[in-house]
Design brief:
alpha/beta; N-utilizing Substance Protein B Homolog, Chain A; four-stranded antiparallel β-sheet; 17 helices
């Protein structure tokens, strides 16, 4: 351990203060919070914060069980210190004496909570694993509104599998421009169905072979599937709505399409432009609100990867569990409906529209498409087949839509394939 590790622990507590106290996205605050740490301590601070968020429901249940009385609301920073301590003892490979001592050192010497934090962490070391064994971890770790939604729509057994899959950190998935066999060897990765690559998480991505040369990009396996639903795109005019940061844009361009990447955020499109430059892909970039965009000529195909609650990405973004609400789903589903309605007018007759969201909520997937087809009789579903998705028939629902769940691809076994993000996609034709 380096001398800065207590500092790394303090950074992890600060990250929790910002995510849980100020509703800030983990991805947006990490870099600033990790400044000044060496690579080892950066990785340690990040692991503590993300692992804590991944198991927060369980950790809070343990804290509440061990406390004689609740901590006052003004002591939320103290609770976050305890959370980080418990994370090290139960979920990270940190020696207990170091986890307890160095975490307690974060509490000022004159604080009345110093003894309490010390006692709770020592009790966690003695009894924590036994208490965990008696707990329904899947249920404890999932907010009521999410659990109820999943149990109602998928059934309690599937809801439990989803929740268990969320406790396992996602691997690193890679889309390659060509020659997956070569890059699988070069990147020490395995080849998934459809030629996607997967390797263990971790490492400096920008230092991997082929990154600077634009041979590949990071993209979850689930997120790579919607673009594949179009079939051959060589020479076709394709509109990528809500395109930033550009993973699907890159796929469409590699497939030979003439791509227009549209997004309302100029800043996000700046990142897309940088990605396309690195990948040496030529696309047209347009800043516009997709709900009011009327092209001079309709497009042959449109990909609408709509803004959503992102509940399908909890494996990669554990803060989503604690930041999103049922009200967010309702607001976003209304936006998705407006985007779908606009896409009908941007698509030529006979053209294909693929709608997708990285959400597990039916309001943003199955129900959204059911309502859309009722509003637009000129649109019809073209069912997705197993051949479209590398033979994975388990991710196709009874309506012929794509419905990926985190426990698919052995998502509850960290030593197997490692699961996939929750995703929904429907393929629609304008008659």
């Amino acid at each position: 351990m380096t001398e800065n590790i207590p500092n790394a622990r303090r950074r992890a507590v600060n990250i929790l203060n910002q995510v849980l106290g100020k509703n800030q996205l983990l991805e947006e605050i990490l870099s600033e919070n990790l400044k000044g740490l060496d690579n080892r301590d950066r990785a340690f601070a990040r692991a503590m914060a993300s692992t804590c968020l991944r198991h927060l429901g369980i950790i809070d249940a343990l804290i509440d069980k061990m406390l004689d009385r609740p901590l006052p609301k003004a002591a939320e920073n103290i609770r976050n210190v305890i959370r980080i301590g418990i994370t090290q003892i139960l979920f990270l490979d940190i020696p207990s004496h170091a986890a307890v001592h160095d975490t307690v050192e974060l509490i000022p010497a004159n604080s009345k909570f110093k003894g309490l934090v010390n006692a709770l962490l020592r009790r966690t070391d003695r009894q924590g694993k036994k208490l965990l064994d008696k707990m329904n971890r899947a249920r404890r770790n999932t907010p009521d509104w999410l659990w109820d939604s999943w149990a109602d729509f998928y059934g309690k057994d599937v809801a439990e599998k989803i929740a268990l899959a969320h406790m396992i950190e996602a691997p690193l998935d890679i889309s390659v421009k060509e020659d997956p066999e070569f890059w699988a060897k070069a990147l020490d990765a395995k080849i998934l169905p459809t030629g996607h690559l997967r390797r263990a998480a971790g490492g400096a991505i920008t230092a991997f072979e082929g990154f600077t040369d634009g041979k590949w990009w990071i993209q979850d396996f689930s997120a790579s599937l919607p673009a594949k639903l179009f079939g051959p795109l060589e020479g076709k005019k394709v509109l990528d709505l809500c395109a930033a940061p550009g993973g699907k844009t890159a796929q469409l361009a590699v497939m030979g399409a003439n791509v227009t990447a549209l997004d309302r955020s100029k800043a996000r499109l700046g990142r897309l432009s940088e990605n396309m430059e690195r990948l040496q892909l030529d696309v047209t970039i347009k800043v516009a609100d997709a709900t009011g965009f009327l092209p001079a000529e309709p497009f042959d195909a449109i990909l609408l990867d709509a803004p959503c609650s992102s509940t399908g990405t909890i494996r990669r973004h554990p803060d989503v569990t604690h930041l999103k609400t049922a009200e967010d789903v309702e607001k976003l589903s209304q936006l998705q409906a407006r985007l779908l309605d606009a896409a009908v007018h941007q698509l030529k007759s006979g053209g294909t529209l693929v709608y997708s969201t990285c959400s597990l909520q039916p309001e943003e997937g199955e129900e959204q498409i059911r309502n859309f087809l009722a509003r637009h009789p000129q649109m019809s579903r073209k069912p997705i087949t197993a051949d479209d998705v590398g033979g994975l028939d388990e991710i196709i629902n009874s309506e012929g839509d794509l419905r990926c769940l985190p426990h698919h691809l052995n998502g509850t076994d960290k030593d197997a394939l490692g699961g996939m993000d929750g995703f929904f996609a429907a393929r629609l034709i304008k008659n």
